[in-house]
Structures are given as structure tokens and as C-alpha cells.
Amino acid sequence: MKIISVANQKGGVGKTTTTINLAVALADLGKKVLILDLDPQGNASTGLGHLAPDRKLTLYDVLVDGEPLSKATVMTQVNNLCLVPSTTDLSSADIEMIEDKARVMRLKKALQDPILAKENFDYVFIDCPPSLSLLTVNAFVASDTVLVPLQSEFFALEGLSQLLLTIKDVRESLGSTLRVEGVLLTMFDRRNKLSQQVEKDARENLGGLVYEAIIPRNVRISEAPSYGQAAVHYDQYGKGARAYVALAHEFLAGQN
Amino acid sequence: MKIISVANQKGGVGKTTTTINLAVALADLGKKVLILDLDPQGNASTGLGHLAPDRKLTLYDVLVDGEPLSKATVMTQVNNLCLVPSTTDLSSADIEMIEDKARVMRLKKALQDPILAKENFDYVFIDCPPSLSLLTVNAFVASDTVLVPLQSEFFALEGLSQLLLTIKDVRESLGSTLRVEGVLLTMFDRRNKLSQQVEKDARENLGGLVYEAIIPRNVRISEAPSYGQAAVHYDQYGKGARAYVALAHEFLAGQN
Ligand SMILES: Nc1ncnc2c1ncn2[C@@H]1O[C@H](COP(=O)(O)OP(=O)(O)OP(=O)(O)O)[C@@H](O)[C@H]1O
Ligand SMILES: Nc1ncnc2c1ncn2[C@@H]1O[C@H](COP(=O)(O)OP(=O)(O)OP(=O)(O)O)[C@@H](O)[C@H]1O
Ligand SMILES: [Mg+2]
Ligand SMILES: [Mg+2]
What we know:
The structure is a homodimer. The first copy, chain A, is 43% helix and 14% strand. By secondary structure, chain A is of the alpha/beta class. Chain A has a 7-stranded mixed beta sheet, sandwiched between helices. In chain A, helix 1 crosses helix 13 (239-253). The longest helix of chain A has 21 residues, at 154-174. The mean pLDDT of chain A is 95. The interface between A and B is large, with 38 and 39 residues. One adenosine-5'-triphosphate sits between chains A (11-17, 39, 43, 130, 186-187, 215, 217-218, 221-222, 225, 240) and B (10-12, 130, 153-155).
């Protein structure tokens, strides 16, 4: 079971969209996948059609009250894909865990649930909130790698070095092997010189970490969540969906 | 001096872009304006051409070390507009202030700086980070109103009710008069049925709170920060810039 955080403290860069579409594309390829919705906004849950009133046990109950992760895991409408949902309660989790010296280890411990291990998930993706707060640090401590969506816009590059520093801090302070899984260019517009500049800068500075697959800005991608579906199902022959499927293949090729 | 938070916990909805462009448009109309960059990403500072190496005193020093706000205030390249910048240090402010029972009042107290009062600012805009954390609560406690940028996308509507609840909580628990200044539709694409749906839903549910002015998705707006300028200066005759100028006029008309 490989655990991957999808993170970037810059908001609106495509973390949730990437988590949903990559996970669904991998599930379609026969991999068993689990999504942890670690964002109090609960967008990954909604985007998979799991609406707020249906969320009985959530990541809040797991992190704050110690409920087993397996108990909060639900099926989705997609074969091979399960979800642990979130609600806005999660936004108070960092204050509620503040007394616990081992608060950064809570998610890592929860993922060691023996009943969860029996499910034989190939991949666990953690959709992170837009901040480098305790929730995101919990995700990094629990993860093997971090997949970084990078919006092809000016402000997005600015936050990248801080994110890479935080990953290094977690690796060194906890003696873990946390590293970058890959950097994915999102909302890319070929006609826009800013997009081209961001791609050039990213490939120059990050080299092979940047995926060949690039996700174009594509209106079908932003429509899909309103139908509770991933874009790879909602508009499977569209440019956006095909880019995420290409990413899934490139991601799998990189696992060896 | 009226204090306005620009907030929405959903990431990437145009908080920083709205803060910069509305503030600059008001400064051009002769109002004296101050921007507080309360986001550890420091995008408002960068977007105004105030680069990280130049940031001597920041909001971190004000909130955590008690430096006077007037001391951290710098001029910008725009007449009538000043800034209090931020750096990534600010992301540890909530943990560092946790012992202080009155931690939510720190920004409010800092804004009572007598030297700042002599500057006779008409408006103070606080660019908030994408979360409902201690920094954003500090902004709400210090503010008269909250201006809410609403991206014309599906996930953006989902978080709105939570944001309105938080504003109500702050108002009731502190006996303040905090209310919504207005809701601004951003990144609007007339050809996209999702944008039209979000506008219809917003006007039906929020009525007169929604500005007439709508900010279109416009590539010049996203290019402007890479030149350290507001879009209203970088591309002053463009559709995006003109929409922000229209907003400034509508905002002023609403002040009476
Ligand atoms: N390639 C794309 N083309 C067009 N729209 C997109 C694309 N990817 C994401 N979007 C839309 O952009 C918005 C932001 O994406 P998303 O919510 O996935 O970002 P995020 O990083 O998870 O945001 P947050 O920081 O709030 O968690 C959403 O409305 C989404 O539907
Ligand atoms: N009307 C618009 N048209 C096109 N691009 C826009 C528009 N408004 C903002 N942008 C771009 O979209 C991205 C997100 O905007 P911005 O950074 O202002 O949002 P934010 O809410 O402040 O994000 P965060 O949640 O990270 O603080 C930026 O790259 C910005 O340049
Ligand atoms: Mg998200
Ligand atoms: Mg911002």
C-alpha cells in the first residue's frame, strides 16, 4: 500500500480535481484505491457524489476521537475506489489535537489499522487543504510521497519552494523517506505565455519530477463535480479526461 | 477608517486579486487605502511589487512580537496605497499565539495603533488565507465587514454557507457588528452554463448582497502580478480592469 499526499498550500490549483481523477483513472485500470478527504471543505467527497448528509463517520472522528479508519471507509459509485469523507468539523481538529505531543502522528497511526490492511489497497491518496497546517503535516508524516499540482499561473510558482522546504523538514525531523512523487502542471492554456513560462521554469528547476502529462484548462473538468462524477467518467473522450488517463499511465510506469 | 476582510476559505477564488485591484482602483479615485497581507504566501505583497527580500517588518512581527502596525507599514508604487507585508513566518503564528486567551483580538488591538490613526486611511483591506483558521478569525474580529469573492464554479458555492456561519458566530460571540460587505462573482465566463448557474443561485439566495459588477475570467488579470502591478494599471482598458473599476464605484456608492 503506497500512501501519496496531493498537496500545495496555494489555493485552487487542482488538488481535489487531481485526487479524484487520478484515483478514478487508476481504479479503472484495476488498481484498488482509497481517497482520504483531509480538507474540511469536503470537496473530494462531494466531487465523488458522496453528499454531506450521508457522511456518518468522517476523518474528524478518526483523528480526534480515535475511530478506526476502516470504520469510516465507504464505497463510492466507482469500482475499486473507496473514500473516507470529511465535514467542516475537521477545521477544528488542529485546535482539538494541540495538547497531544504526538499530534502529527495521528493519521499515520490510523493508517496502520489491521482491518484496513485486509482490503489490500494499492494506493491511498490524501487530498490536502490549502495550507501547511497540522492537517497537512499529518498527511506528510503518514505518506510515502507528495504529488504537487502546479497551476500554470504566476502566484503558483511562488509557493513551490516553501512547499518543497516543508517536505524536507518533515523528512529530516522524522527520519522518514518522504519525497516528491511528481509535479503536475494543471489548468494549462497553450495560448497563454504565462503557462508556457511556468512550464519552462518548472522543467528547468525540477527536471524529471515534472510529469510529461499536462492537464489543460477544460470546462468539462469543472462541470464534472456538479454531477458527482470524475471528469474521466463525465466526459471520458474530452481533452481533460484523456490528460488524466495519460497521467495515470505515466504514474504507474514511474512506480517501478 | 473602515476595515474590510476579503475572505473565502475556498482556495484560488480571487481573494488576493480582488484585494489588490479594488484597493488600487479606490486609491486612483483619491481614497487613502491600506492593505494587510494576512496570507503567509505573501501574494498580495508580491502582486504589488513588494518582493520578499524587501520585507523587513511583517504582520508576523506585529501579531506575534507586538510590533506597532505603523512601523510595519510601507508605501507601494501606487499613490494613496500602503501595505503591511507578510512572509511564510506567518504560517506558524497560530501555534505561537495558542497560549494567549485573547489571541483572536491581536489584529484588532494592532489596528488601534495611534500613529496609524494619523494616516487617516479611508479603507483597510485584509487579504485572508484560504482557511477559517486563527488568522482569518483575527481578521473577522478586527473588521467591520467581509467582502466575499465567489468563483463561478461548483465547489465555490459549497463553502459559502460555512463562511456565512463563521461570520455569524464571530458577530454573536463577540457582540460585534460584523456583516457581509458584498459578494463578488469572479472568473465569470458568460459562455459557461456553470457560471450562469452560480450567478442565478447567488442572486436568488443572497439577493442585494451580490454586486452588479461581475469580474470576467481574463488572462490579463492573471498576467499582471508577474509584473508587480494591479490589472487596473497593467491593462487599464481591458475587460478585467474595467470590471474592477466598476466594482470600486459600486463599492463607494454602497458606503452611504
Ligand atoms: N484543468 C482544469 N480546467 C478547468 N477547471 C479546473 C481544472 N482543474 C480544476 N478546475 C476547477 O478549478 C477549481 C479549483 O480546482 P480544485 O478545487 O480541484 O483545486 P484545489 O487545489 O483542490 O482547491 P482548494 O485549495 O480550495 O482545495 C474548481 O472549481 C475545479 O473544478
Ligand atoms: N478574473 C480572473 N481571470 C483570470 N485569472 C484570474 C482572475 N482572478 C484571479 N485570477 C488568477 O487565478 C489565480 C487565483 O487567484 P488569487 O490568487 O487571487 O485567488 P486567492 O483566492 O487569493 O487564492 P488563495 O486561496 O491561494 O489565497 C491567480 O493565479 C490569479 O492570477
Ligand atoms: Mg481542494
Ligand atoms: Mg490569496
